[in-house]
Amino acid sequence: MTRLALFDLDNTLIDRDAAFRSWAEEFVDGHGLGAEEVERLVTLDGHGYLPRETLLAQVKEDYGLDGRVEDLWAAYRRRIPDFVHCPPEVRDGLARLRTAGWRVAIVTNGHAESQLGKIRRTGLDEVVDAWAVSGAEGVRKPDRGLFEIAATRAGASLGAGGWMIGDHPVMDMAGGRAIGFATIWIDRGGWTGQEPASDHTVTDVTEAIGILLSEVEGR
Ligand SMILES: [Mg+2]
After folding, report:
1. Does the keyword Magnesium apply (predicted)?
2. 31, 76, 139, 193: most buried, per Cβ within 10 A?
């Protein structure tokens, strides 16, 4: 049986919120705005779930910026990967999974340029078998199609089962359940009141990788 692990990217393999905060700090500083605007931007960001065009249209209006929203969005896409980091222990954990016989892929919603930029900048491209980015494929989590693309590229098939690891209760956890996968929820603390239908709940992806590695040893 092929062991397949599908990982979400933002706030699962990488700390997307920290990257956004760094971007906001640079933006605020570069535009001569008050430091309190960083917190405002972080709130507006909504953990990345506010569409970027909406976010940047609001930014343009609030700060009276010249130029087009499209250009702000293009600059954002180019810059945000520079602020993204993946801890070495996460990359090492993914490499260990593959050594142990797992196929590993990233399944992420987002713009192709920014998501691919993050995957490459962090070196994740070197420690996974494949990735599927919604912006490049025209299908988004929780739709089965994006999971299927990732699985196929990783040399596996959804029908053989596997694990989905992510921080979003609907896109990752419900999406993972719907394809018949076991799930591990990365509890980022932002989803109070929602019941994650997950097989395991952890606070960090390295714990999730540990669970997967012990699965192999336990069977
Ligand atoms: Mg996420």
Report:
1. yes
2. 76
Calpha distance 100→75 (Å, rounded): 40
List, as ranges, residues with CB under 5 A of the ion ligand 1.
8, 10-11, 167
pTM of the model: 0.91
State the distance from the centre of ligand 1 to the C-alpha of 40, rounded, in angstroms: 21
Question: Which tokens hold the place of 46?
Answer: 């909504």
pLDDT tens digit string along 51-66? 999 999 999 999 999 9
108-118 tens-digit pLDDT: 999 999 999 99
- Do 58 and 73 touch, CB atoms closer than 8 A? no
